[in-house]
């Protein structure tokens, strides 16, 4: 993967955060859930995905650099990771992890990029 893991790739058309909430999220091999929240903050942009019943309602944080496409017609965000990669990612718990640099380092390492 080229570029910063914590920024949207230049080829991805972004829309404001209020509009992405509720979009379906698709891994390279199928649907994984819906966007629960996201940020476009420079250098720490990411999505929080609610996986719903697929993996027992877990939430996962996906760095913006994993996004390959935002489809405005089908309300879908596509990422360059597999369902298993996302399923095995460290769970995101907002009360514990929001703003936690150690958690971000773990996520950055897990997805193969630098921490922020």
Automatic annotation (TrEMBL):
<dbReference type="InterPro" id="IPR014747">
    <property type="entry name" value="Bac_photo_RC_H_C"/>
</dbReference>
<protein>
    <submittedName>
        <fullName>PRC-barrel domain containing protein</fullName>
    </submittedName>
</protein>
<feature type="compositionally biased region" description="Basic and acidic residues">
    <location>
        <begin position="88"/>
        <end position="105"/>
    </location>
</feature>
<dbReference type="InterPro" id="IPR011033">
    <property type="entry name" value="PRC_barrel-like_sf"/>
</dbReference>
<feature type="region of interest" description="Disordered">
    <location>
        <begin position="88"/>
        <end position="116"/>
    </location>
</feature>
């Amino acid at each position: 993967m080229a570029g910063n893991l914590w920024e949207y790739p230049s080829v991805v058309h972004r829309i404001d955060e209020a509009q992405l909430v509720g979009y379906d999220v698709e891994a390279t091999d199928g649907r994984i859930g819906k966007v629960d929240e996201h940020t476009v903050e420079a250098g720490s942009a990411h999505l929080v995905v609610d996986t719903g019943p697929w993996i027992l309602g877990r939430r996962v944080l996906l760095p913006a650099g994993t996004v390959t496409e935002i489809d405005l017609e089908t309300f879908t965000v596509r990422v360059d990771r597999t369902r298993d990669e996302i399923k095995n990612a460290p769970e995101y718990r907002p009360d514990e992890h929001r703003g936690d640099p150690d958690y971000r380092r773990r996520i950055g390492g897990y997805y193969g990029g630098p921490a922020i």
